[in-house]
């Protein structure tokens, strides 16, 4: 049974999956030894996975579209097709104005237009509506830090792939696995993290927290959408948030352990200065949720850069 300390540790690890045990201990008021044991238990029980998530810009996936589907008939066949599409990183069957939503990541707007043309031809689709994301403020499955201009070599990619599997791998283990000294491995990993190429975070297993409730939001703003996005990104429970162009000024996802907490989060969003009308849709069933760079995990080291 998870307690308040476990929840605090999970939040801290979501912010920095490579935080030292001492830093985590200072944050929750326990000893370093006690925190180490708790984190080990969280990982071994499957409550969390501490992994690296890759900045999509590294792979040239600069265009993000949030797509809403109006569907005639059963939605299951559409969900199966969305699950098979490489460009679709998230897909959920929903209740609300539309019957399904998806997130599409591609190289540019031309590729996005081509993907939308294909999505319109999928089973049962009567209409698609796209929100073209501009700034992404929060994404639990991709790094949203500013990506610096950086050149990656084969050793960098080998380190990235290992961080995607185990975000808290020690520098000694990483050095041994890629054939570097510990100091060289540390220097490269710090560079990868500080440049925004990869972000190490804790992915929380929903069943560890009880029921996992998700709600999608389309937010109309009063004033500056970018400033409002910055404020809403600080709300605990916002798992995705982006500003952009389309039907809404902001699109967001709220994640909570139960309906009561979900309602509280929604009310918090509605009470935030600058928030206008809010449209919602329930995520009844999530068909696909892929973190940034996940498809690189199984690449052989000889593959080098994905380019």
TrEMBL record:
Q: Which Gene3D superfamilies match?
A: Winged helix-like DNA-binding domain superfamily/Winged helix DNA-binding domain (1.10.10.10)
Start and end residues of each HTH asnC-type domain: 2-62, 152-212
- Which InterPro entries does the annotation name? AsnC-type_HTH_dom (IPR000485), Tscrpt_reg_AsnC-like (IPR019888), Tscrpt_reg_HTH_AsnC-type_CS (IPR019885), WH-like_DNA-bd_sf (IPR036388), WH_DNA-bd_sf (IPR036390)
- Which domain of life, per UniProt? Bacteria
Keywords for this entry? Answer: DNA-binding, Transcription, Transcription regulation
The signal peptide here is none
A Pfam cross-reference name: HTH_AsnC-type
SUPFAM superfamilies, per database record: Winged helix' DNA-binding domain
Enumerate the PANTHER family for this protein: LEUCINE-RESPONSIVE REGULATORY PROTEIN, TRANSCRIPTIONAL REGULATOR AZLB
What name does the UniProt record give this protein? Lrp/AsnC family transcriptional regulator
Native species:
Nocardiopsis coralli
């Amino acid at each position: 049974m998870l307690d308040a300390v476990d929840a605090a540790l999970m939040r801290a690890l979501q912010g920095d999956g490579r935080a030292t045990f001492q830093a985590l201990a200072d944050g929750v008021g326990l000893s370093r030894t006690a925190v180490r044991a708790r984190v080990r238990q969280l990982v071994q029980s499957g409550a969390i996975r501490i992994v690296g998530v890759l900045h999509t810009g590294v792979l040239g996936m600069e265009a993000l579209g949030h797509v809403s589907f109006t569907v005639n008939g059963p939605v299951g066949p559409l969900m199966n097709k969305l699950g098979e599409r490489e460009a679709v990183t998230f897909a959920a069957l929903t209740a609300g104005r539309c019957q399904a939503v998806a997130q599409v990541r591609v190289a540019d707007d031309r590729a996005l237009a081509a993907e939308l043309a294909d999505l319109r031809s999928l089973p049962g689709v009567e209409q698609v509506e796209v929100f073209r994301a501009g700034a992404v403020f929060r994404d639990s499955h991709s790094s949203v830090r500013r990506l610096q201009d950086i050149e990656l070599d084969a050793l960098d990619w080998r380190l990235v792939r290992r961080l995607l599997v185990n975000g808290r791998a020690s520098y000694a283990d990483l050095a041994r696995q890629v054939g570097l000294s510990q100091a060289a491995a540390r220097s490269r990993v710090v560079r990868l993290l500080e440049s925004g190429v990869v972000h190490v975070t804790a992915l929380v297993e929903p069943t560890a927290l009880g029921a996992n409730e998700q709600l999608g939001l389309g937010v109309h703003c009063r004033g500056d959408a970018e400033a409002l996005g910055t404020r809403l990104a600080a709300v605990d429970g916002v798992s995705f948030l982006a500003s952009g162009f389309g039907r809404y000024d902001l699109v967001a996802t709220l994640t909570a352990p139960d309906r009561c907490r979900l309602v509280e989060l929604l009310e918090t969003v509605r009470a935030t200065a600058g928030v206008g009308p809010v449209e919602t849709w329930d995520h009844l069933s999530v068909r696909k949720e892929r973190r940034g760079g996940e498809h690189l995990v199984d690449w052989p080291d000889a593959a080098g850069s994905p380019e």
